[in-house]
Structures are given as structure tokens and as C-alpha cells.
Amino acid sequence: MKDDKNIDSLLRTTAHQMDKEIEVEEPSLAYFTDLVQKETEAWYKRLWIELALLWLTAILCLSVLAVSVVYAPLVFIGIQLLSVIVLFGYYFKENSRTVAWRS
What we know:
Elements: H1 2-21, H2 29-102
């Protein structure tokens, strides 16, 4: 029991001496408030950038879908018309070549 009191008093005196020797300078409350404000502003800025990129990606995807839905039939019809024109051109070319060969 006496050893416990000696150890307790020794720890208290050592802690008291350490407090006197080591000066711990604690930052003011304004420092922490400013730090929290800066971190919050940086977080909101990063959040807005990520949100803008997400919106841009969504708009791009929706635009591609809308254009493909609207213009896909037109592209298909255009390719069909082009193939018919090419086939008619090929037919007339071969027909004229055949007529010239027969004569």
C-alpha cells in the first residue's frame, strides 16, 4: 500500500515537472475554425466538380441515345437508297456494255 502511494506521488511530481519544462503551445480556436472552414470549402468545391462531371456524362449519354433513336431510321433509309442508286448505276453500266458487245 505504501509502495502505491510512493509510486503515485512520484508520478504526480514527475508529471508536474514535465509540465513546467515542456511548454505546449496550443493553437487558438480561430486556427481550428479556419481549418474546418477551408476543408469544408475544398470538399464542396470537389463535390461540385464531381457533380458537374456526372451531369456532363449523363447529358452526353442521353444525347447519344436521343440522336441514335431519331437518326437511326434515317441512316438506315439513306443506306438503302444509296445501295439502290449504286445497283441501278451498275445495272445501266453493264447493260450498256452488253449492248455494245452485241453490236
